[in-house]
Specification:
59% helix, 0% strand
Length: 98
């Protein structure tokens, strides 16, 4: 009986692995949360952060700029770095105010 259970588990693991590999090939991602900036509402804020960083601003300067614009959420230099380096979600999904 246990041999059948092991075989069934092995087949299920193989099936799931193939499904994850297929999804990774077709979409580029399969597991984990979507990185910050992947949702349309986050794009303007993501673009602002990237532009400021490419202009040479420090993480602290970017976080101060976000705070001065009344951007939702708390933006510390560590959160800005996490968003840029790791795609971490830092604030609720809201667009940058105009």
């Amino acid at each position: 009986m246990s041999v059948l259970a092991e075989l069934d588990k092995s087949m299920l693991v193989l099936k799931l692995r193939k499904a994850r590999e297929h999804k990774r090939r077709t979409t580029g991602r399969c597991e984990g949360p979507k990185p910050y900036g992947s949702l349309p509402e986050e794009k303007p804020l993501w673009n602002f952060i990237c532009a400021r960083r490419q202009a040479g601003d420090s993480y602290a300067a970017i976080s101060k700029a976000l705070a001065s614009q009344d951007t939702p959420g708390e933006w510390s230099k560590d959160r800005v770095r996490g968003v840029l380096c790791h795609g971490l979600r830092a604030v609720p999904t809201l667009a940058m105010p105009a």
